[in-house]
Amino acid sequence: MAAVRTYVHPETGEISLARVLFALSEPLRLEMVRTLAREGEVDSIDLGPDLPRSTLTHHTSLLRESGVAFVRAEGRKCMISLRAEDLDARFPGLVGTVLAGYESESADGKARGGGPEQAAGQ
Which residues are in the HTH arsR-type domain (predicted)? Predict the structure, then answer.
């Protein structure tokens, strides 16, 4: 019988603002968090179906270790969800503000025919 995978997560009080902001600073991870906020718990593979498994594991591990996401094993699946309540308890409004700014920036970039660099005026 295969061993059950377990994951270590920081307690709510141990979640660091610097680590959360670092986790949210990468566009791919920010898109993953946006998906989690919109869809709830998903199989991690759905967060990056076109990514190499090692890349997906790296990014989901970083989200877990920073306290942004909760990961659990379900058979062969790796289910991941946003720790919205914990993050809001620790840093009220942070995730909502970051996601709103990201969506606004994405919309501006699309309206101008460019990506985030163009939306930021670069």
Answer: 19-96
